[in-house]
Amino acid sequence: MIKLKTNPFDKLRTGSQKSKAVCMKGSYLPVILLLSVVFITLASSVASIAMANLKEARHNEKLISSLEVSEAGINYYMWHLSHDNTDYCDGNICNGLGPFGPFTHQFTDSSNKVIGSYDLYVTPPTTGDAVITVKSVGRLVGSKSERVVIAEVGMPSFAKYSFLTDSECWFGAGETTNGPVHSNAGVHFDGVANGVVSSSSKTYKPSNSFGGDGGEHDGVWGDGGPKGFWIYPVPSVDFNKISVDMVNMKVLANNGGIYLGSSGSLGYYIKLQTNDKISVYRVSSEKDDGIIATYLQDYDLPGNGMMYVADNVWVDGTFNNKITIAAEITTGNSDAKIKIKDNLLYSTKDGSANIGLIAESNIEVPRYAINDIEIDAAMLAQKGHVWFPYSSGYIKNSISIYGSISTNLYWTWSWINGSGNITSGYRMTTQTYDPYLTLSPPPQFPTTGSFAILSWREE
Q1: Which of 100, 162, 280, 355 has a CA that sits 20 to 30 A from residue 400's CA?
Q2: DSSP track, 356-368
Q3: pLDDT tens digit sequence for 64-119
Q4: Are 146 and 272 in the same domain?
Q5: Which residues pair with 293 in a beta bridge?
């Protein structure tokens, strides 16, 4: 009997275990290959996304830079207009009615390297308007990306303010303002503002009649708000420059407008008609119950919308176009007034009609005015008041203003005694700012003297 040292079946079992191990190790390879493919695919996707984002970022950077170049074109032409208010052709001779351009300029960086250029197209203002349209097309060197900016540029007129005065003013707790409010002296504001309230004074001492308490106050102060709308100090608005504007308006009235010399009596009554006719009367008498006037003639609305009167003016009527009436007396010691005794209306309140009234002295609603009156106009009193002059016992019902008020001295439609009772003027007052006046003031209406961007948009 031969005894074996090892069991041959043990060797067989051992061999089968090795084969199984080899098979188990080989089964991981497809998994590893699959994971590798997934990883490479993900890595490629991430890289592609990163490259796309980088490309998009560079594109956006170029777009932003192109916009900056376009805006530089607008700023350049504002600077150009400040040196020549009526040059709409960038120093070249204008042919035709416009728009004019393109006028191309290079844009350089701080090292004087040219990085882009802009093309300018300039549209002059329409007759009687003051808004210039500037279109700027900006691009970078080596890029096809363009950005187009269109800006309405002009000198803001006095009519941009809902209320403007050279003196201090006080808005009570029950008053609401719409549109910009400004005083060169100071504002006591207890009301509700729906626009900027500004003052040229950092601080001032309000008088008792304007709610002062004997102390120093901020340029805008009071219990009203929102206080985020309050701005002070800001540059003052010069009422004295209106004298220069009056000279220009007189020239325009004599050249394409309507000029009325001295009436030889009290002044002229002007009746505005819906058919663009302007009826003119000579006023010979003014009494407690009204005026006596004699018809002179009708005028057509002048092309430049300008009417200059070297005398006092009474005005009312309904109008569906744009006109400015300036009243100034250049001889003697008296200053011209404008009086509104009956409704002065726009046929529609859509910006197609506006009336500018500019008085050397006061703009008044006289004691014989109608009981309920509406005045649609941008009113400017160069040296005086916009008001209902105090007339004891003359108490009216309501006055409604649609437009703007600019007055050298304080304004009021109501006179109230110490007990809070109205002793003269109108019981109810309403003032609504005409929003179209900002971009489209009455013809030749005096400006504040510096160019600004009135509106801006990207095309």
Answers
A1: 280
A2: EEEESS-EE--TT
A3: 678 888 889 999 998 888 788 889 999 999 988 889 999 999 998 878 889 899 99
A4: no
A5: 283
